Structure formats: C-alpha cells, structure tokens
C-alpha cells in the first residue's frame, strides 16, 4: 500500500498558498511580513527568485511555527536536496517529473507536483504525494475539480495560475483543498507597491479561504 504524504498543517488549514516570484530576494521580507500579519500562513518561494535558499532560514526563524515556507519551481532532484537543507516545509513543481517525485518521497518532504491532464495528475497522485497542482488553472475553471473528483474522489487538488479572488471562492467550493495565488493578490507589492493596499487584498483572500479574516485557525 502506498504511504500518503500530507500537506503541512498551516497550509492545509488556511487553504491559501501565496506564490512569491520576485526579481530580488531582498524584496520579499517586507511583503511576507505584511501578508503574514494579515493572516497568510503559507508562502511558496519560487526558485526564479535569486538567493531563495539563503533567505529561507532567516524567514523561518523570524516567523516561527505559525507560517509554512515552501519552495516552488523545483525541477531537479538536486533542488529537492537544497530546499530540504534550507528548511522548506513543502515543495512545488511546475510539471510532473518522476525523478523529482522520487527524491521528494525519499527525503520525506511533502510535494505538490504540477500537472494539467488527468493522466499527469493521477500519475503523481498514485505515487503518494501530498497534493497535486492543477496548472495553469486559469485555462480550465473550477468545474475541472468536480470532474476530477468523479474518478478520483480522494485526490487533493491545489489550483495554481490565474486564480483571483472570485475564482478562489469557486475552486474551493468545487472541492479544491487550497488555492495557490500570485499576481492577482500581490499586485505591484514586490516592485515597491503600497503595502497597506496589499494588506487589504490579503485580508479579503484570507476571509474567502478560511472564513476568518485573521490568523486564528478555521
């Protein structure tokens, strides 16, 4: 019998993963602090941002156990090792890569591999990963989750790519375990945008995803 990974507790309970894809690592901490204060409990730092592995331990120390930090855009087994060494609570891939899945399972780190078709998603899910990422979700719509849960009722699905406030509500209502959100929430925050406005947007997403609008557990 396949042993099933599970999503980290903060990520599973909050049902919201914020994807941070910046041009500079130093732009991330103030944005993360603002969003964590507004209720975000799970951040995916992508490897397209330079120096993520160096930044991650500092973020983990600063924010403590109430926030999960994952690493995204993982495409090689070596990156799995580096992410685990840096303290990542979970990993995310843009595609279905058997070698990356093998390494993540070997290292016992929760993995959310990306896929688009039912075959891709099931090939990952059948290996025992924590969840599967539907990407790019904006091309499909929330009805896709309902369709998937027909033949795969236990599949844990996290849509990513093009998820805004309205579609987040729709995806969750359709059965998604969480939503992965980037640009529609972040806006221009990583380019010096207004952090007060970011906090307002964040609270709206948190309320949709958890029903609380605060850092309290749902």
From TrEMBL:
<comment type="pathway">
    <text>Carbohydrate acid metabolism.</text>
</comment>
<dbReference type="InterPro" id="IPR013785">
    <property type="entry name" value="Aldolase_TIM"/>
</dbReference>
<protein>
    <submittedName>
        <fullName>2-dehydro-3-deoxyphosphogluconate aldolase/(4S)-4-hydroxy-2-oxoglutarate aldolase</fullName>
    </submittedName>
</protein>
<keyword id="KW-0119">Carbohydrate metabolism</keyword>
<comment type="similarity">
    <text>Belongs to the KHG/KDPG aldolase family.</text>
</comment>
<keyword id="KW-0456">Lyase</keyword>
<comment type="subunit">
    <text>Homotrimer.</text>
</comment>
<dbReference type="GO" id="GO:0016829">
    <property type="term" value="F:lyase activity"/>
</dbReference>
<dbReference type="InterPro" id="IPR000887">
    <property type="entry name" value="Aldlse_KDPG_KHG"/>
</dbReference>
<dbReference type="Pfam" id="PF01081">
    <property type="entry name" value="Aldolase"/>
</dbReference>
């Amino acid at each position: 019998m396949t042993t099933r990974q599970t999503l980290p507790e903060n990520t599973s309970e909050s049902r919201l993963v914020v994807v941070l894809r910046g041009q500079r690592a130093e732009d991330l901490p103030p944005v993360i602090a603002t969003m964590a204060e507004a209720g975000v409990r799970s951040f995916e730092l992508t490897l397209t941002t330079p120096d993520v592995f160096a930044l991650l331990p500092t973020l983990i120390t600063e924010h403590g156990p109430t926030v999960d930090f994952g690493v995204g855009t993982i495409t090689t087994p070596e990156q799995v090792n580096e992410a685990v060494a840096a303290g990542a609570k979970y990993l995310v891939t843009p595609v279905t890569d058997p070698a990356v899945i093998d390494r993540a399972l070997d290292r016992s780190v929760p993995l959310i591999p990306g896929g688009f078709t039912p075959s891709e998603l099931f090939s990952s899910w059948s290996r025992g990963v924590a969840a599967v990422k539907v990407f790019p979700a904006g091309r499909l719509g929330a009805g896709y989750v309902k369709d998937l849960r027909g033949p795969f009722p236990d599949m844990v699905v996290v849509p990513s790519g093009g998820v805004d406030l309205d579609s987040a509500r729709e995806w969750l209502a359709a059965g998604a375990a969480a939503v992965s959100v980037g640009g529609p929430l972040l806006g221009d925050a990583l380019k010096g945008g207004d952090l007060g406005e970011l906090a307002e947007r964040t609270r709206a997403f948190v309320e949709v995803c958890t029903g609380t609008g605060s850092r309290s557990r749902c």
